[in-house]
Design a protein that fits this description.
With about 325 residues, the chain is of the alpha/beta class. Helix content is about 45%, strand content about 15%. The protein has two domains: about 230 residues, TIM Barrel (Alpha-Beta Barrel); about 70 residues, Putative flavin oxidoreducatase, domain 2 (Non-ribosomal Peptide Synthetase Peptidyl Carrier Protein, Chain A).
C-alpha cells in the first residue's frame, strides 16, 4: 500500500467499472477494486465476466475481486486472472446479495469456515500475486465469526483483509460494528482495511482513530461523489474539513465521467450506463427529479453534455 493511511474504493457491483475507478484514482483513491468477477464465468471464458476484470495502467494499484463456492473453480479462475497481472486478487466472502448467497458464494461461506479456508488455500496456491479477502462479520448476530475467519485466512497466506462489520442478514441496514475491525486488527499482523458507514471525511478519520485500521474503504458514498477521496485526504493531512465542491464543479466532474464512459463503451452503451450515475451527481439539488426525467429522454452524448453544461447557469 502506497500511503500510510490509504483510501480504497470498494468493489461495487454495477458501479465500480473502469471509468469510475479511473475517476476515483484521479481524486485520490490509493487502491481500487473491480466489480465482482464470477469464478464460474471466468473458467468458462465468458466475455461479459472477463470484461469486468479488464483495467488500464491508470487504475493501478488495482485489485480484481473474485467470488465462487468451489476451491477448484476459484483456483482455475485465479490462474486466468493472474495473466492480467493485477496488483492483488481478492476473495469475496462478504457479498450479501441473494443471487450470490444462493450459489454458496459471498457471505454464505461465513457459515462454512472450513470450506472458506479451502477456497482461500487453493487461491493462494494458484498464483504468485497477492491474495486478499473481504469479509462480513458473520451470517447473523448469533454467528459472529470474522475473528476466526481472519486468523484462518492469515495462517494460509492471505496478505490483506477488508472487514465490513455487518452480518449477511443486516444487508446494509443498521450500523457497522467498528469494534470488530479493531478486534481483527489486534488479532492479525497483516494489513486490515475498514469498511462500512464511511460517508464523510470525518467518518474516515474516526474509523482510523477508533479501529487502528491500515486503510479505509469507501463504497456507496463515492457514487456521484468521487471527490470524497480528495476531501478525506485533505482532512487527514491537514485537519481542514473540506466543503463540498460548487455545483458547477460537480457538473464538470459528471461531464468528465460521461466522457470516460462514452470512450470506454461507445456512445449508445456509455450514455445508457451513465444515466444512473448522473442521477446520483444530481442528488440534493433543486429540481433534481425533473432534471433526471429530462436526461432519461436524451440519447445522444452531445445532447446530454449540452444539457448538463447549462445547469450551472440556471442555478447561479
Amino acid at each position: 500500500m502506497e500511503k500510510e493511511f490509504p483510501l480504497v474504493l470498494a468493489p461495487l457491483a454495477g458501479w465500480s467499472d473502469a471509468p469510475f475507478r479511473r475517476l476515483c484514482r484521479e481524486f485520490g483513491a490509493d487502491i481500487v477494486y473491480t466489480e465482482m468477477v464470477s469464478a464460474d464465468g471466468a473458467i468458462r471464458q465468458q466475455h461479459k465476466t472477463l470484461a469486468l476484470a479488464q483495467f488500464t495502467a491508470s487504475e493501478r494499484p488495482i485489485v480484481i475481486q473474485v467470488f465462487g463456492a468451489e476451491p477448484e473453480t476459484v483456483a482455475g479462475a485465479i490462474e486466468i486472472i493472474t495473466a492480467m497481472r493485477p496488483d492483488a486478487i481478492d476473495l469475496n466472502f462478504g457479498c450479501p446479495a441473494r443471487k450470490v448467497v444462493r450459489r454458496g458464494s459471498g457471505s454464505a461461506l461465513l457459515r462454512d469456515l472450513p470450506l472458506l479456508q479451502k477456497i482461500a488455500r487453493a487461491a493462494v496456491r494458484a498464483t504468485d500475486i497477492a491474495i486478499t479477502a473481504k469479509l462480513r462479520s458473520g451470517w447473523d448476530a448469533d454467528s459472529i465469526v470474522v475473528l476466526e475467519a481472519a486468523e484462518r485466512l492469515q495462517d494460509i497466506g492471505v496478505q490483506m483483509l477488508a472487514i465490513h462489520p455487518r452480518t449477511q442478514t443486516q444487508q446494509f441496514r443498521g450500523f457497522a460494528d467498528w469494534s470488530l475491525i479493531r478486534r481483527v486488527k489486534e488479532a492479525v499482523s497483516i494489513p486490515v482495511i475498514g469498511n462500512g458507514d464511511v460517508k464523510t471525511a470525518w467518518d474516515a478519520k474516526k474509523m482510523f482513530d477508533e479501529t487502528g485500521c491500515d486503510g479505509v474503504m469507501i463504497g456507496r458514498a463515492a457514487c456521484g461523489r468521487p471527490w470524497i477521496f480528495q476531501q478525506v485526504r485533505l482532512f487527514l493531512d491537514s485537519g481542514q474539513e473540506p466543503s463540498s465542491p460548487a455545483f458547477a464543479e460537480q457538473i464538470a466532474v459528471c461531464l468528465r465521467h460521461l466522457a470516460l464512459n462514452v470512450a470506454a463503451y461507445g456512445e449508445k452503451q456509455g450514455v445508457r450506463m451513465m444515466k444512473k450515475q448522473i442521477a446520483l451527481y444530481l442528488r440534493g439539488f433543486a429540481h433534481a427529479s425533473a432534471i433526471r426525467q429530462k436526461i432519461l429522454a436524451l440519447e445522444a452524448h452531445s445532447d446530454i453534455r449540452e444539457f448538463l453544461s447549462e445547469l450551472p447557469n440556471l442555478h447561479s
